[in-house]
Amino acid sequence: MPHNQRIIILNFGGQYCQLIARRVREAGVYCEVLPHDTPIETIRAAKPLGLILSGSPASVRRPDAPYADPALLNLGVPVLGICYGMQWIAHQLGGAIESHDAREYGRVSIRFYQNLCDLTEPMPSTASCWMSHTDLVTRAPEGFATLAYSDNCPVAAMADPSRKLYGVQFHPEVTHTERGRELINGFLYNICGASGDWSMETFIQQKLSELRSRIGAGRVLLGLSGGVDSAVTAALLSKAIGGQLTCVYVDHGLMRKDETEQVREAFEGHFDMRLIQADASDLFFSRLKGVVEPERKRKIIGAAFVGVFAAEAAKLGAIEFLAQGTTYPDVIESGQAAGAAVIKSHHNVGGLPDNIGFNGLIEPVRMLFKDEVRAVGEKLGLPESLVWRQPFPGPGLAIRCLGEVTRDKIDIVRASDAILREEIAKAGLARDIQQYLTVLTGVRSVGVMGDERTYENAIAIRAVTTDDFMTSDWARVPYDVLARISSRIVNEAPRVNRVVYDITTKPPASIEWE
Ligand code: XMP
User: Fold this and answer.
1) Catalytic residue positions, numbered
2) What is the pLDDT of residues 163-174, one digit of tens each?
3) Does residue 335 sit in the same domain as residue 478?
4) How many C-beta neighbours within 10 Å does residue 118 have?
């Protein structure tokens, strides 16, 4: 992408690194997250407007601490170190770092010296800021002014404006930090001289011309999942190359109510492309027969999906490019996640076969965060139901049906899910709750209906609020909304006589039950 202006964020492994990147983008400035050990030549060649060094759980005082090339402090571009990033700067330049007895975590009151430096200019004399650290800088390096302090932290912010080097011990990217956004914006606009040239309009224009010149007269194949990432990828490609795009949507029979039709309606007649919907539900249900173990279900669905997709692709003859709706969090995470524990094997269109044989991979939204992908989708005219669709797992309702997956059981999950979604929308809560779903728990229990004793299924409702789906809290859905949902589910969904509400956070529970 030929952006004139960019900020580079070096990732030392801190939990808030992505959040820093999102704040910079929200401020209208393009940024990229690179590994902390990115060679200095690469950084220089990118001509960054400024550098931000992220936090890290590590200690700069240990020999195995994540490092960066100290030459980046002499590039002449502004550098802002956040938490570990500041400690790393101090360590490189001869400041003193010590370990704190106790970890300082949470909101801390910080006092700012006034009128000392552009960086802390937006901060009031006392501000509540988010801290999360064990080590701290006890003496700033020579040439640096101390800009702020707290009861436990003698140097909570520091700067050497003549060398354009800045550091904050607190986390301005976290919303709990008072005026944190202003501090970041000030760094970008006043110190780095950003003009704010990152917008979705320019992204779309640049991306369309880039796609056209890369693809030429070639053909492109894309798997549509019904989710926003692949939908926006399809919309961009359709605008760029029209009928050279073929989209394959595999209907595994595990989708939510009306979803398959919605995908067709969104694209047919609105976007120039060839759309193939492959109804493969018989195959999926027959392969899932008798299988109860969650990971096996996922593997079977993943393999069947790839098989159907590959078979459809083979019918099309030679296709030069495969497209995917990869987004920036996937890119950042896959850069670091090596060795991370596999909690659940994820099945996405992304895990596609090497053996289909494409010349190239096209990932038009690879550098975008989810909110940016949505903004692009809106600008390209995709319907709101698709653009604001909540996340839905690749294996679909199968992982919300505990035990063996059958058509009858999926019908129960689908009917209860549709009721839940309708009622959440009617209550105006759809944008406040990031994910909500129903689960066929596999538990049957005794009830009464009319004068009859029943022995039927228990449905669980799961509704969560979350920023990143890595952690979540259960949504405080009002009781009267829950009451309506419960009464409609027992009355309208087949064979349900009990509804329960899941009140567990993640961790320890995951969002899906499986
Ligand atoms: P868990 O259940 O691990 O889910 O807390 C976290 C988020 O990931 C979604 N999820 C998936 N998304 N393919 C996906 O694209 C999958 O295989 C998959 N499994 C879980 C889940 O819905 C939640 O949003």
Assistant:
1) 83, 171, 173
2) 999 999 999 999
3) no
4) 15
